[in-house]
Every structure is written in C-alpha cells, then in structure tokens.
Design goal:
GO molecular function (chains A, B): 3-hydroxypropionate dehydrogenase (NADP+) activity
Radius of gyration of chain A: 18 Å
Largest sheet of chain A: 4 strands, antiparallel
Organism (chains A, B): Streptomyces beihaiensis
InterPro entries (chains A, B): Nitroreductase, Nitroreductase-like, Nitroreductase_HadB/RutE, RutE-like
Shape of chain A: globular
Pfam families (chains A, B): Nitroreductase
Oligomer: homodimer
Helix content of chain A: 40-55%
Number of strands of chain A: 5
EC number (chains A, B): 1.1.1.298
Chain lengths: 197, 197
C-alpha cells in the first residue's frame, strides 16, 4: 500500500526526521519562520479557532531567562540552538472569531458564554494540533525541531507570556549538528493502537 | 523563501487540503489506515508517550450509535463517510513506556507517581499532537479528513471506550465528494501569531 505523498517527502517529514539535540551554528531567519507559518496556518482546527501563538526567543538576555526555566537535561541544547520558540495557546482566541469564522456570527458570544475554563480546554486541544503542524512545518523547511515539555511552564508563562496564554512546549529549531539524535525509540504496533468496531 | 518540501506535497498536505463535508462511496481500507499509521507513528511526542488510540467505526450498527452522539450539524456526514475514526488519548499510556522509552527505566514509575489527573494532561497534549499527525497522514494517503469535535464526547467514551480513554475528536475519512468544502476561512496574519523577544 503506497501513499500519495512521495517517499522523499515522507522521509523529510516523518521517516528520517528526528528530534534534534544538537545544532549547527547556521542561523534560522524570520523569513524561514514566516514560510513555515504560511504553510501550516492552513492546518485545520475546530471552528478555525487557530489559538496557537509563537514567541521567538532571539535576544541573548531572553534566551538566558528561558534556559533558566528549562529542566536540567534541556538547558544546554536550549542555550545553543540557533532559534528557540515558545508555543502557547491563546485562551482568548474567541476574540478573533469574527474574522476567523465570519459565517457564524454567534461564535464569539458562544465562547464568551462558555467561560474561561472551557475555553482553556478548547485552546489547549487546538493549539496542540497546531503545534504538531508547526513541527511538521519546521521539517518541511529542511530544519530539525527539538520540541520539549521538560520546563517550568508556569514560570515561562510568568516570564514571557501573560494570564491569557498557556505555554504548551518549547521548540529548538536549526540544522542538526554532530550526534544530533538518540537512537530511534520503538513505536507501538498497528494492532496496539487501532481497533475496529 | 522556499521550503525544502516540494510544492506538490505542500498542496497535498496543507495548501489545497481541506476539511471535507461530503465523500464519494469509494471505501477506505484497513490497508490504507495501516499505511497512514506506519507513516505518522514517527511523529514526536514527549518521552515517546504515543498515547493516541484509534477506533475505526465500521459496522453499520456501531456507525448508527456514533451518529446518534454527534452534534446535529455533524450527523449526516458522519453517517455517510466511507470510514469514521474515533481518536482518543490513553490515560494509562505509561504502561507501555518500558517498551517505548527503554533507556529510562524509571519512566513508568514516574507517571505512576504523578497520578491520573497529571497523566490525563500529558496524554491529552500528546494525543492531540498525534491526532494532527494522523490528519496530515490521511491527506498523505490522498484522502480527505473531516475532523469534528462537535459531539457528545462523554457519551462516546461510555459507548465506545472506557474510563482509561478520553475521546478527542471524530474524523470522517474518504475521497471528497460533490461540494465537499465550505469556502476557506481566513487565517491570522504572521504578525498576529508570532512575536519576538
């Protein structure tokens, strides 16, 4: 059974793509991130909520503040990666729905009425979908992603975001360096994941 | 700025791919779903948690039970799609970590100690990442996905899953039929999503 996606693209995005732990010094430009966003913004979310927000940590001072909030095992690579991005969910995403979902006038009001906790769940799910599209997009740009949840996420919220934004993960981005990968860990077999009713 | 991913693949996965609302009668086979899984299983999750589980709803009797639990606007298409999948998060994913993350012996025990609520958060985030990889994989197979959260998800849990599994979404899968798409909704501009510090 062959896929419609050509094997080179399969390798680039999934089969040979790996979470990188070291990077070369080659910079990652804003133009590259813009090209990635311009591709992955089309990935679907519930009612086009599009709650993902991206904070590029570029200044050495901000980078150091972020490194201080990473788990010990993630500090060194986060300090050395050419670019580091904080991916977060905008819990007030519904403010944008008059633009994002124009054919349903009641969308913003519906989420207003739902209350913040329900919106946080919606934003969390849909921003996670978009985080995955973003990781795929980084790979589509010929770069390696190093997504990490090992961090003081509440500290990252206080240091870099605000109460309306919930950080999901931190992603190192760049060309893979020497010994960039651990050995690939096993995956579950099809029958362990997929059942039929 | 051009991406490493060729334009045909960009179109297939993101630019021309759309959430389908109608489908042809062409069946979607288990072999196709297996090929999709065999690609997207490589998408990264935290500590290789891999909590996504997929329930293929194939029997007419099960399909009817699922349709009954969908929001009104999703009933007809869920009834007619060639294949419908329930995507869920396994909150006891850590039982598999001795296989999935073999180089860290303490992984299962760490998540045992965390308690169920913390595991549910981990499973929710990582299964959502994998749900996005799955949607990309459906498109990689030359099929259209119709992901939906408009459903009685708690009812779906009771009817099709168990307490250890939290449903995230239902996905219609097939070749797009007539008038399959709504007009594409707008996306946020780069500057509305990405900030730099």
């Amino acid at each position: 059974m062959s896929l419609a996606l050509d094997p080179t693209a399969q390798d680039l995005l999934f089969r040979e793509a790996r979470t990188a732990n070291t990077f070369t010094d080659e910079p990652v430009t804003d133009e590259q991130i813009e090209a990635i966003y311009d591709l992955v913004k089309y990935g679907p979310t519930s009612m086009n909520q599009s709650p993902l927000r991206v904070t590029l940590v570029r200044s050495p001072e901000a980078r150091q503040r972020l490194v201080n909030l990473m788990s010990d095992g993630n500090k060194e690579k986060t300090g050395k990666a050419p670019l580091v991005a904080i991916l977060s969910a905008d819990n007030e995403f519904h403010e944008e729905l008059p633009t994002l979902f124009p054919h349903f006038e009641g969308a913003k009001g519906m989420f207003d009425g739902m209350g913040r906790e329900a919106r946080e769940r919606q934003a969390g799910l849909n921003a996670a979908l978009q985080a995955a599209y973003f990781i795929v997009g980084v790979r589509a740009a010929g770069l390696a992603a190093g997504p990490m949840t090992g961090a003081d996420l509440e500290g990252i919220r206080k240091e870099f975001l605000d109460d309306d934004h919930t950080p999901l993960m931190v992603v190192n981005i760049g060309k893979p360096g020497e010994n960039a990968w651990f050995p690939r860990s096993p995956r579950l077999a099809y029958d362990e994941v997929v059942t039929t009713v």
